[in-house]
Amino acid sequence: MRWRDGRRSENVEDRRGRRVGLGGGMRLGGGGILLLVLGAWLLGVNPLTVLSLLAGGGETLQLPDASAPAGAPQTGAAPTDEGADFVSVVLADTEDTWTQLFGGSGARYEPPRLVLFSQVVRSACGTAQAALGPFYCPLDRSVYIDLDFYRDLRDRFGAPGDFAQAYVIAHEVGHHVQNLLGTSEQVRAAQQQGGERQANALSVRLELQADCYAGVWAHHADRARQVLEAGDVEEGLAAAAAIGDDRLQQQTQGRVVPESFTHGSSQQRVEWFERGMKTGSLEACDTFGR
After folding, report:
1. Chain segment 5-26, per-residue pLDDT in tens
2. Where are the domains of the chain?
3. Are 33 and 130 in contact (CB under 8 A)?
4. What is the pLDDT of residues 142-168, one digit of tens each?
5. With b meaning 16 or more CB within 10 Å and e meaning fewer, what string describes 162-191?
6. Fewer Cβ atoms within 10 Å of its own Cβ: the N or the C terminal residue of the chain?
């Protein structure tokens, strides 16, 4: 992926290095990250619900800045390492793409903030552990990511490459787009009215649409700035397939339970990401009407 000459975003906040002690001196490494990511997906639990449980029950989380209000900006030094630099460029590219797309319909795009953290971070949605992977918090309109997740994406999920990493960011930004458009709020309201199976089905549609929006970004970014290199598309599709519910369930429990899906099968995630890449159209990402 061609990214080094790209614009850097001013909406990246670096909170790394703020270590958080868990009861009994336990700290989560790469293995713990994978297990909790898989556990949240397989159980069909909203990751932010799990975050709240982890913060409020059993273990005591003692943040260095515990007096600060939840979701309050905690600005650190500007990131200078290559991983953070890459994230900043990708975020800037999503800003340029979605600003153009929103502007085409007469709307104004308000970019999200992206927070880099290590192990544990405080968001307006609760205290978040890196163990649950990257996430978007609609309450503070921020994307949160521990860059160690990319190591797991490469080594444990078998999805290496910089475009695979860009896909992860673009997917979370896709959730921000859903928030701006009001889709997320509509889905949450519908989930509260139905049972668990309906809530899971709506979650799948929301996640697949975010995959499609990630593809829409890639389509327009490449047309405008020629960011894609040979093999990048395959990297993105491999990342989408690697984190399908069916593949994760088969790997961990030896069987697939479709009614417990919350993110979609590998085939679905690939299909919708590819659809967005080919069409570049938000209208083509109507996962709720299909």
Report:
1. 889 999 999 999 866 444 333 3
2. 12-285
3. yes
4. 999 998 888 888 887 777 788 889 999
5. bbbbbbbbbbbbbbbbbbbeebbeebeeeb
6. C
